[in-house]
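Subject: Interface between my chains keeps coming out wrong

I've been trying for a while to get a sensible model of this assembly. When I model each chain on its own everything looks fine, but I need the whole thing in one frame so I can look at the contacts. Pasting all components below, labels as-is. Any help appreciated, I'm running out of ideas.
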Amino acid sequence: MNAPVIKARGLRKAYGSKPYGKSVIALDGVDFTVGAGRIVGLMGPNGAGKTTALKAILGLTPFEGELQVLGRDPRVSRDQLMNDVCFIADVAVLPKWLRVRNAIDYVAGVHPRFDRAKAADVLARTEVRRDSRIGELSKGMITQLHLALIMAIDARLLVLDEPTLGLDLLYRRTFYEALLNDYFDHETTILVTTHQVEEVEHLLTDVLLINHGRIVLDAAVDQLPNRFVQLVTTAAQLPAARALKPIYERELFGRHALIYDGCDPAELQPLGELRTPSIADLFVASMQGVRQ
Amino acid sequence: MNAQAFKTLVTRELWEHRSLVWAPVVTAVLLVVGTMLSAQGTGSVQIDLDGRESSFFMALSSDPKVSGELFGVWTSSLIIPQAFVGFLVIFFYLLDCLYAERKDRSILFWKSLPVSDEATVLSKGLTALIVVPVWVWLLSLVSGLLVFGIVAMKVSGTPLAPLGEFHPFVWLTTQVVLLQNLLLAALWYAPIVGYLLVASAFAPRSPLVWTILPPVLLVTAEKIVFNTSLVGGFIAHRLSGFFEHFGGMLLREGDQVASPAAAAVIGDAYQGLSAVSVLTEADLWLGLPVAAVLFWGAARLRRWRDAG
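Reply #2:
Try treating it as a single job with all components included. I did that and got this:
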């Protein structure tokens, strides 16, 4: 149980490395480890390398470096890996021509760890009708169906890539509630990418922030208060505050908010109000750095 | 991958490509309904009895062997239109089957399940080579019996009554031979199916163009550079070679179909287990490793091709 679920060392991926073409580096030697039972948010701006990292983990794309998922190399054994890994790429990938009941039949037919009764049970609580084709369902209903299928699989790792993209607020909220209440059992590991940071920050146990193909922050959420502190101060205190080397700074209604990494709160205390920055704050801080 | 899971994969193909199931059914129904209507429409069966035809039907009614052979030919030849429709839907199915899933990105869903690319490609290939042909054969068997029944009712009590006589042994033999030929055709055409799967898995868009263009370019280039047509000949042999073996036995040049002799030839062709001549053909067996490589190639393409 203590063996890491995902272990990446020097994970690297470049697209379009042709002699004359421009090669884009999506992942630039990334190291990270995901432990069992964690809920990890892999976050970054568009094009940061999130999806490439997920594709590598799921065995959907070749890569360089070392990557072990549940002890397997996804390049070699994607199909065996999928016995223990579930993933929702985004809601648009369920084929439109498939009927709801056939979707259940199909997963039941190919997945040895699918519990048909459980899927039916989850689905019964929604408005999704079994005779409908997926093309006839709303985006929110397709998500409910996909979630019902996933929840009925006894998996060890669940990977979610922008699972709520294009959903309205109501469905987004219920998606994560269902995930947390009915699915998460402290043994399953969840890896979720999103750029809607606020939406997931209360449920994560770990954050991985990625930018330009590199990990810029890798921390457990419960360690964040020990490490990061946000100071809200006035213009008069700004030079003193800046002297303590903030990693990020912004101005808000004439007041200044500065974020520090590993700075002693005792030193900051006299300069203004202190609080723990939210993951969203850290996200922005990591992506933009100090803006003078 | 157990048998149950593989069956699910094949069933999935039929859910997606319903024309594989329904186009042959519609063809069979049209044949039966068409026979019914024409039997209804004409007050009697019209046959222009000039000298040759009258002697033909005389022979038919007097010689049970000839009438049995003719029976075998016409009940089994009903499979021809059905096989043609089957061929068309299979062709377009193969073009689409590894392309559409990339286009609508549903490949990401299929790949989120523990199914290997090899099993997926194999399920598609076998759907095209075995499942649909056997379905067409079953339908032609049923529709053949129905058409025969309609005709038998129509001709009973007329001079053509021998046409309405059922020959159980001939019928059974021709059905077995037809099925056996379909399975042999599966072996013969496996490389073509493999090629279509590769084209479907590779095509960035328009798999039809990507299927037709490479051989056309190859043939043209060969003609221009070497002024030969080996590639064209090779492809033509693979496409028509199967029929050369069977067609040669079906109709000999110069034979008139409407003669007892021709009917006997045709009947022999169906009754004799013609498999032997194809099974001794080296090309049949040489095609199989090629098919295996192409199937493997299609699976590799599906494995690593980016679905955007």
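Reply #3:
Confirming on my end. Residues 247-258 of chain B have pLDDT under 50 and may be disordered.
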